[in-house]
Design brief:
Elements (H helix, E strand, L loop, with lengths): L52 E5 L2 E2 L10 E4 L2 E4 L3 E2 L12 E2 L18 H13 L2 H12 L3 H25 L6 H6 L4 H33 L5 H18 L5 H28 L1 H9 L6 H12 L20 H27 L2 H6 L4 H10 L1 H35 L19 H16 L4 H29 L11 H21 L3 H20 L1 H13 L3 H18 L3 E5 L5 H14 L4 E8 L5 H16 L4 E8 L4 H11 L6 E4 L16 E4 L1
Parallel strand pairs: 7-8, 7-10, 8-9, 10-11
Antiparallel strand pairs: 1-6, 1-9, 2-5, 3-4
Helix pairs in contact: 1-7, 1-10, 1-13, 2-3, 2-9, 3-9, 3-10, 3-15, 3-16, 5-6, 5-13, 5-14, 5-15, 5-17, 6-13, 6-14, 7-8, 7-10, 7-12, 7-13, 8-10, 9-16, 10-12, 12-13, 15-16, 15-17, 18-19, 20-21
């Protein structure tokens, strides 16, 4: 380091010529002489200590060769050349300035809905999406496997049992919303997590479209004048308007729908069972019907299509923060037991009431036809009304889920932040549901409203998400094995679950290879937007180069604007909480930030008990070494007195102006006293 140096800048407001250490108006802690000393601990309501003091050792100015190419970042509205600044290393406490951190209100640490759902409500919300699948899966499964459909549905139940433990382990280890995206974000890279997010979005699209189509199919049994095609588009638009208005799922309403649906299905099983006993020849004749394929292929293809019947099982992981502690594994068990028992029994009832020809002809509304033949006209209308109600609930679930996921992706800068725009009328992110409606409606129109085509797109995206979730759980075991979790899936269960999903995925592609084109098309659109977001700095650099080769008036018009846009993108501050002076961990943290985040500004935070802690100096000196290894990254060192806790993280977030989803930690051990979910989205990035 050479030339004039300004030490110890401790404010985020960057000023080249001023040294804030000597500012007499800067607050000094009680009992401190100048900038040092110890202050009295600041206690929050309830007696728990928050952080008391805050100081920073920031980057300093150095002289650079005149020929050096500038590497600009944007700090508080001012362009700064990263090559002109270097981390100074250890600075004595008497040369630093300290400030007192105010405690945060515990009521603001998390969203007000966190931990509000009990087991019944949580099961109802997930169950509406999951149990609605039975309304169309029995028909398409019977079309493929004939009288072997109940066996195929039973096999799917066993596969879902494996995923019960897979999802349970991941959800209890990292209890944060986001499903597969959140799991992979904390175990792999941000780009891999974004891949899972794109597949989840496509799964939500397929959920909304298939559920809306089937809802109108069942509704047409009530009102024959309903045009299924146009009313499906109308239903999608209706829920788009509701989402823009801010009307989300109510747990009470969801519970009511779920209980009515379950009661209807139980009553259908009883009525159908009585009809079977009175007309045993129907079931016997169906058993004698020849299969479309040899029995191994019939079971394989039936299993592949029957996997559509468990779509929605992953829904519970997308609102895990809203569930009370300990409820998530129970929700998974309740969802599994419903599918494991109900789907095969309903399939047997349908085979006992309808012949295979009729069943295949009515594969889109097979339960309503079964109810009509077994219980009469009004019972059939009742089942149609129940089906329409629960399928409509699934459409709303898709809107609610995609709004939350896309908002998280936009906050993480994986999707354009313009999607976060709020309307003044309802203060909602209106562009997200509108974009989702356009995507759903276009997919429906391109496929011409054919349910089988939609179901295959639905299944492919869902199975890809399930496969990535299984892989993510394996990575969780390998990379984050020290995290406490009450549920653990065995390695054989993980491999068996992954193998079953891959078999189902390959089988569905073999059954309808043409539908793979639509799947790839829509996945490519969503993934393309994400790739552009990840590579926008590179794209802007190419654009800036092209502009520099053009006429002078174009350079004057676009060069400055483009450079400012790049500076703004790279100005996002990232925080890493260092546990100790481990050079390898610090190096991994900086490497992760450089590889996964579009920023050149990293603040390393160390929470200490006493200023005499030798770890402070050790970390500072190691950061100086790392700073020289990463010349394009500006590194600051932040010292916070207190104990590492969710409250302290919230205090640092408020002081630095960094959202908690841009704060990272190393993987905690099994003795870590806090729950990862209590930190409001803090990400684990190293072993």
């Amino acid at each position: 380091m050479s030339g004039n140096v300004e030490y110890g800048l401790v404010s985020d407001d960057y000023v080249v010529s001023d040294d804030y250490r000597r500012d007499p108006s800067y607050p000094v802690r009680a009992g401190a002489g100048g900038g040092g000393g110890e202050g009295a601990p600041l206690l929050a309501p309830g007696g728990q200590a928050f952080a008391t003091t805050f100081t920073q050792i920031e980057h300093v100015s150095i002289q650079t060769p005149p020929t050096a190419q500038p590497s600009l970042i944007h700090i508080d509205g001012k362009p700064v050349d990263a090559h002109r600044y270097e981390f100074p290393g250890w600075v004595p406490p008497n040369e630093l300035k300290f400030e007192t951190l105010e405690p945060v209100d515990r009521n603001t640490l998390h969203h007000p809905t966190r931990g509000t759902l009990n087991e019944l409500y949580s099961t109802a919300i997930c169950g509406n999406d999951l149990t609605s699948s039975v309304l169309y899966v029995i028909g398409v499964t019977t079309t493929m496997s004939g009288q072997l459909a109940p066996l195929c549905l039973l096999i799917v139940g066993f596969v879902l049992y494996l995923f019960k433990s897979v999802y349970g382990e991941a959800g209890t280890a990292i209890p944060l919303n986001g499903g597969a995206y959140n799991l992979l974000l904390n175990t792999t890279s941000k780009s891999v997590a974004s891949l899972a997010a794109c597949l989840t979005i496509l799964s939500y699209v397929a959920t909304a479209v298939v559920s809306a189509t089937e809802c109108m199919t069942y509704a047409s049994n009530l009102c024959p004048w309903i045009d299924i095609y146009w009313w499906t588009l109308g239903l999608l638009g209706f829920f788009c308007v509701l989402s823009v208005m801010g009307i989300s799922e109510s747990a009470v309403v969801a519970l009511g729908i779920f209980l009515v649906h379950m009661a209807s299905m139980v009553f259908l099983i009883l009525v159908g069972g009585v009809y079977m006993l009175q007309n045993t020849e129907i079931f016997a004749n169906n058993l004698r019907e020849p299969l479309k394929y040899d029995w191994p292929l019939a079971i394989l293809f039936g299993f592949c299509t029957a996997m559509l019947g468990v779509t929605g099982f992953e829904t519970s992981a997308n609102y895990i923060e809203e569930q009370q502690k300990g409820v998530f594994p129970k929700t998974l068990f309740n969802s599994w037991i419903v599918v494991f028992i109900m789907n095969p029994i309903l399939s047997i009832v349908c085979l006992g009431v309808l012949d295979l020809g009729t069943l295949e002809a009515h594969h889109r509304d097979v339960l309503a036809k079964t109810a009509y033949d077994a219980g009469g006209k009004y019972f059939g209308l009742w089942i149609s009304a129940d089906a329409a109600l629960v399928l409509a609930g699934s459409v709303l679930t898709a809107y609610v889920g995609v709004v939350g996921l896309v908002r998280r992706l936009a906050l993480d800068r994986c999707l354009p932040q313009v999607l976060l725009a709020e309307n003044r009328w309802r203060r909602t992110n209106h562009l997200i549901p509108i974009t989702f409606f356009v995507l759903c409606a276009s997919l429906f129109m391109i496929l011409g409203g054919r349910v089988r085509s939609l179901a295959n797109v639905y299944t492919l995206s869902f199975l890809c998400v399930m496969a990535l979730f299984s892989i993510g759980n394996m990575m969780l075991k390998y990379k984050r094995g020290r995290i406490r979790r009450p549920v653990r899936a065995t390695w054989p269960s993980c491999f068996a679950a992954l193998a079953a999903v891959l078999i189902a995925l390959i089988g569905n592609i073999m059954l309808a290879p043409g539908h793979l084109i639509y799947f790839l098309l829509y996945f490519g659109i969503v993934a393309g937007i994400t790739i552009v977001m990840f590579e926008r700095i590179r794209i802007l650099k190419y654009f800036l180069y092209l502009v520099s080769q053009g006429p002078v008036h174009l350079q004057d018009r676009f060069a400055g604007v483009t450079q400012l846009a790049m500076d703004k993108i790279k100005s996002q501050k990232i925080v890493f909480f260092a546990k100790n002076d481990n050079l390898e961990v610090l190096n991994k943290a900086v490497s992760y930030v450089q590889s996964n985040e579009l920023t050149k500004w990293l603040k390393v935070v160390y929470v200490y008990d006493d200023l005499s802690d030798p770890m402070i100096k050790a970390i500072a000196e190691n950061l100086r070494v790392i700073d020289r290894c990463f010349p394009k990254v500006v590194i600051d060192f932040v010292l916070v007195q207190g104990s590492f806790s969710p409250e302290v993280v919230a205090q640092v977030s408020a002081r630095l102006g960094v959202p908690r989803n841009f704060m990272f930690i190393a993987c905690p051990g099994d003795r870590f006293p806090h729950d990862i979910g209590d930190f409001g989205g803090v990400r684990m990035i190293t072993h």
